[in-house]
Specification:
By secondary structure, the protein is an alpha+beta fold. The protein folds into three domains: 112 residues, Orthogonal Bundle (Butyryl-Coa Dehydrogenase, subunit A, domain 1), CATH 1.10.540; 108 residues, Butyryl-CoA Dehydrogenase, subunit A, domain 2 (Beta Barrel), CATH 2.40.110.10; 145 residues, Butyryl-CoA Dehydrogenase, subunit A, domain 3 (Up-down Bundle). The strands form three sheets. Strands 1-4-5-8 form a four-stranded mixed beta sheet. A four-stranded antiparallel beta sheet has the order 2-3-7-6, covered by helices on one side. A hairpin with a 2-residue loop joins strand 9 and strand 10. Helix 5 packs antiparallel against helix 8, helix 6 runs antiparallel to helix 7 and helix 10 packs antiparallel against helix 11. The chain is globular, with a radius of gyration of 21 Å. It starts with 5 loop residues before the first helix and ends in a 5-residue tail after the last helix.
Length: 383
């Protein structure tokens, strides 16, 4: 019996079929060459995935967060890199759709929002800096109003999607009032004067996902490019972390499911001492632990997403989902490599790619240690 609606199950099936037939076959090659496949992302757009959470009036799907999570989960089962690209790509356009004034929306909907909904373009969320990650109060990128322009100076690190050819802009969290420690989110379009996108990082995993440092050297953008109420950028960013954590937890869940599937199949095919290795209790122990954690991950992810969709407090549950799903997926990838044995250490085995890819999940959008801190705070334990 499914806990999801008929519409959610239908979207899940469509994305699962697409992922297995079109995404999976080239995933290893894209990883080896650190190549992003734009045609695959456009196909996701044709399926409606990037626009799922946008209003139908804008051409979106009018769906909730849980539905979007189910979609990216299916992509993550075969290619975590693509799922992370898809998870981040709509964020800037969502900020415009939610926070922009009527005047801003009139200016930007056709150019900066609808192409993202259709999967023709991506956005980047530029928050993290070399010396400020989860500690958003420590952000040093400055924006000073000079007449009718913002002048931005600083740098951002580990930013997803900014270097893609189809990236339109980055939404940049900037310090705008150092004395009051007020922050604002400012849209910086690709090609803006003083905006430099640095060469892609060489990464341990997630190699076909674009990750870069961004530099702002007297970067000038129109004053109207600030979105949201003045000085409220940091608060909105912190609240946005909750949805991001639930989404990232969903990608980890998808990878864990795939690790369980391939490890279980291999354990039943691989023979040692004249019987399948699945018959040995130590191997069984790894597989059943993976299965249990997949079930628990789904329960906590679903609860967090449903609380978000109902407009109820969800910060603690989002942190729990991020912590548990990502740590469990990391363990699942480790167990999958172990079940495959020597082959698990080879590039030819998908478990090795899953092992490399998932390591970032316990770091991005707040480390596991930060999630524990958030949970303790929500429980009133910090005093």
């Amino acid at each position: 019996m499914s806990d999801y609606s008929e519409e959610q199950e239908a979207i899940r099936r469509v994305v699962r079929e697409f992922a297995r037939k079109e995404v999976a076959p080239g995933a290893a090659d894209r990883d080896a060459s650190s190549r992003f496949d734009y045609s695959l992302y456009r196909r996701l757009g044709e399926l409606g995935v990037p626009g799922l959470m946008f209003p139908e009036a804008l051409g979106g799907g009018g769906a909730d967060l849980l539905t979007f999570c189910l979609a990216v989960e299916e992509v993550a089962r075969v290619d975590l890199s693509l799922s992370w690209t898809a998870a981040v790509a709509p964020v800037g356009a969502q900020q415009i759709a939610i926070m922009a004034t009527p005047e801003q929306k009139q200016m930007w909907l056709d150019e900066w929002v609808k192409p993202v909904i259709r999967g023709e373009a991506t956005t980047a969320a530029a928050i993290t800096e070399p010396d400020a990650g989860s500690d958003t109060a420590g952000i040093q990128t400055r924006a000073v109003l000079d007449g009718d322009e913002w002048v931005i100076n600083g740098s951002k690190a580990f930013i997803t999607n900014a270097g893609l050819d189809n990236n339109l802009y980055a939404t940049v969290l900037c310090l705008t009032d150092p004395e009051a420690r007020r922050f604002d989110t400012i849209i910086v379009p690709k090609g803006a004067p003083g905006y430099r996108i640095m060469p892609a990082y060489r990464k341990m995993g997630l190699r076909s996902s674009d990750t870069r440092e961004l530099a702002f050297d007297d970067c000038r953008v129109p004053a109207i490019n600030r979105i949201g109420s003045p000085g409220g950028g940091r608060g909105r960013t912190v609240r946005g972390f909750f949805a991001a954590r639930i989404t990232l937890a969903s990608t980890a869940l998808g990878l864990a499911e795939q690790c369980l599937e391939i490890a279980s199949a291999y354990a039943q095919e691989r023979h040692a001492f004249r019987r399948p290795i699945a018959g040995f209790q130590y191997v069984q122990g790894m597989l059943v632990e993976m299965a249990l954690n997949v079930e628990l991950s789904r329960l906590i992810r679903d609860k967090a997403a449903r609380l978000f969709d109902q407009g109820l407090p969800h910060g603690k549950e989002a942190a729990m989902a991020k912590w548990f799903c990502c740590e469990s997926a990391k363990q699942a990838a480790d167990y999958a490599v172990q079940v495959f044995g020597g082959m698990g250490f080879m590039d030819e085995c998908p478990a090795s790619r899953y092992y490399r890819d998932i390591r970032a999940a316990t770091i991005a959008d707040g480390t596991t240690q930060i999630q524990k801190h958030v949970i303790a705070r929500e429980m009133g334990l910090l005093g």
